[in-house]
Amino acid sequence: MTERPPARLRRYFTLVEQRPDLFRQDRGGITIELEPATIARTERLMSRRLATRGLPKAGAAVGLVFDDPYFFVLRDAVTFPDGSPGTYARIVMKGQGGAAILPFHDGKILLLKIHRHAVRRWLYEIPRGAIENGKTPMEAASAELFEEMGGKAVDIRPLGFCYGSTATSFTGVHLFFALLAEVGRPQLAEGIAEIHALTPAEFEAAIRSGEILDSFTLAAFLHAKLAGLFG
User: H/E element holding 41?
Assistant: First the structure.
């Protein structure tokens, strides 16, 4: 009698059918192995490797290994370009990705001083958030501006697309430039304490001094500057 695959693998193979974009194969790249026998062989190999390093064998399990309301974690059985087998974990945000918006008001860029739990520190960032199902990236951009800083845009322009941590995350964000007519108050409920206004020259100085560290904020500024949007 054939043993039934564990739930993590059943849900994984459902994703293979429903989300082929997650399992794209590029010639010469890291290959995702989808044959059950190959997956089982890779799990056994990785379990032994982890054990020799004193690490938990659970780290060898392939499939949908964690499911949060906002994201899930996949661990794939892979073959690296040199032919060696292994596993690789990645984070996939639910929904349609995110939108990050560079707000511009009265000749200055507006930044949020926000406390980020993941890194346990205050950072200066542009507004951003997830794109809910049924919404376009531009609709999400407009909504995030209003929710996070009470901003009302008279013009929103696409800047491009940017990935965050490509070593661990599948999801990126759509970048926008927004010319604001009004600015309100920061959203304290999301850990946003203040709104800072910087001229483009002051923004560049803040990059050089290490005050601005967020990758999406840096990417949006670069795109806007290259497009000549600061006059």
Answer: helix 36-52
